[in-house]
Amino acid sequence: MAKPLLQTSDLDLYLSRPRNRPFFSEGDPSGAIYQVESGCIRLQKMTEGGRRCVLSFCYPGDVFGLGTHGPEQVDAEAVCSSRVARLGHLGLQRMLQSEPARAMKVIDAAYGGQEAGSEHVVMISFAPAEQKLAWFLDNLGHRLGQSIGDELFVDLPMMRADIADHLGMTFETVSREMTKLRDLQIIDLLGLRKFKIRRAAALQSLALTGSLGAKLCSSRSRSIQSRRESSRMARGPSLATLGHIRLH
Amino acid sequence: MAKPLLQTSDLDLYLSRPRNRPFFSEGDPSGAIYQVESGCIRLQKMTEGGRRCVLSFCYPGDVFGLGTHGPEQVDAEAVCSSRVARLGHLGLQRMLQSEPARAMKVIDAAYGGQEAGSEHVVMISFAPAEQKLAWFLDNLGHRLGQSIGDELFVDLPMMRADIADHLGMTFETVSREMTKLRDLQIIDLLGLRKFKIRRAAALQSLALTGSLGAKLCSSRSRSIQSRRESSRMARGPSLATLGHIRLH
DNA sequence: CGCGCGGTTGAGCGGGTTCAAATAAAGTGG
DNA sequence: CCACTTTATTTGAACCCGCTCAACCGCGCG
Q1: Which domains can be identified in chain B, with CATH numbers?
Q2: Model pTM?
């Protein structure tokens, strides 16, 4: 993975939180920027009905804190024991003056630039449960996967209910679809918080088109996703948004 | 409504598009910022399956062009005949130097700061069809409604299918729920592109709690399909994200 | 050991979809 | 302005995916 956007010299302070504790809550003063050092953060919104909606997960290296990734709109909670570096708005102001181009990249990332947020909306709007989960696991594989040989091992930082609240479904359905993917030999479940991607191509096909490409197996016609060839997935650059705006 | 963020002196050029024509498409060069002058723009994503997902509608005064509101992630198309002002990245660069604080507000708006994007995700994830539509119409009322007496008249710039693609449902369901709201005497349908809100309180209650709660408050609170009503602040400014970051 | 939490699995139901047809509105050209 | 076509909306009926409710399993821990 590339070097982190923020270096230790930029940072104001470090924050640690145990599982399920907030780094900030909706309504907190805004303007600071955060970078995940270790663990996993979920950006979420609670409803009075007790419903939770996870807009996004942030993994080590990810930056958040502005817009839909900031305290005006969401809470940020530790999925598991996590550490986060914080750049206060004074520090950001300093960076804007000394290194404006880099500062804009940081700002873009903090708005959610590291992920394709629109993909998420498309998925939870239209995709059937199987495809949603395939999309999520495929992304996780690209993001957190550790290749050993030609197999990809992935640690799941979050529990089923977190995934469910991220994909707009129930944890029972997550569980069912997960075992379905296992039965299809697409993944192996290695304990509750780990899995292995056995057939990455099949998983990706499911994620993108909603069905297993040319090969057989129970295929579902309703396809959703853009058929972008193998390479980049959610993994788009997107950091470049304002990258070319030179300030001096 | 407040004065527009961008003044004529800022702007590079004006663009007009007839219905269903793009202002930009996914993958176009980015960095420019757009402000709606008249009409209505939809920010959307297409899928190979022919499915369309409308992430957001932009009305006169709204600013878009960055992040999930920019060409890296979505297309921008005219819902109806529309006019848009454009501020190229050179102009933005100039503004960043001459009026950094205002430039940051513009940037925040262009990322989607004028709307609560996270609300949209919550709605399409969990809310039932009736509540989704109530939420949408209630928002439209606040945004585009024209009060005459104690009644609120609203022009619908978009067709049912646009609404459906925004709320993650089919246009048939939109139509059904619309007539259901009419039968409940909550709205009146005045032709295809106009309606009147007869009972704003009931509509809001539906939008917020998912049911016609006994009572409600004048300001907007939020919750998804909960039986208990609660009054929190709403309509967060959100433009203020970086507003307090003074550059000089 | 018993308790609790997280996860899996099963049965049944219902909201929203799909398919299909009818109706209404908006163009279009003469 | 009217006949005609096209597009948009309404409405109906049947189906099915995912939800709800509920039981059960497995593991960690006091």
Answers
A1: 8-114 (2.60.120.10), 119-209 (1.10.10.10)
A2: 0.86
- Is A78 in contact with A21 (CB distance < 8 Å)? yes
- Say if the Cβ atoms of B118 and A68 lie within 8 Å: yes
First to last CA, chain A: 29
Three-class secondary structure of residue B43 per DSSP: strand
pLDDT on residue B1? 54
- What are the respective helix, strand and coil percentages of chain A, to the nearest 5? 35, 25, 40
Measured CA to CA, the distance from residue A170 to residue B73 in angstroms comes to: 28
Q: B126: nearest CA in chain A? A: A168
Rounded Cα–Cα distance for residues A239 and A243 (Å): 7
C1' of D2 to CA of B137 (Å):
37
Is the pLDDT at B167 greater than 60, yes or no?
Answer: yes
Nearest-Cα residue of chain B relative to residue A67: B113
Report the distance separating Cα B44 and Cα B162, nearest Å.
10
Nearest to B103 by CA among B89, B117, B115: B89
Those residues whose C-beta lies under 8 Å from the C-beta of residue B82, and which sit 6 or more positions away, are: B16, B17, B36, B37, B38, B39, B40, B41
Burial of A23 from C-beta contacts in 10 A (0-12 / 13-18 / 19+): buried
| A28-70 tens-digit pLDDT | 888 899 999 999 999 999 986 779 999 999 999 999 999 899 9
Burial of A230 per CB tally in 10 Å (0-12, 13-18, 19+): exposed
Q: Give the number of other Cβ atoms within 10 Å of residue A90's Cβ.
A: 13
- Chain B positions touching A48 (Cβ under 8 A) are 209, 222-224, 226, 228-230
The answer to whether B138 touches B205, Cβ cutoff 8 Å, is: no
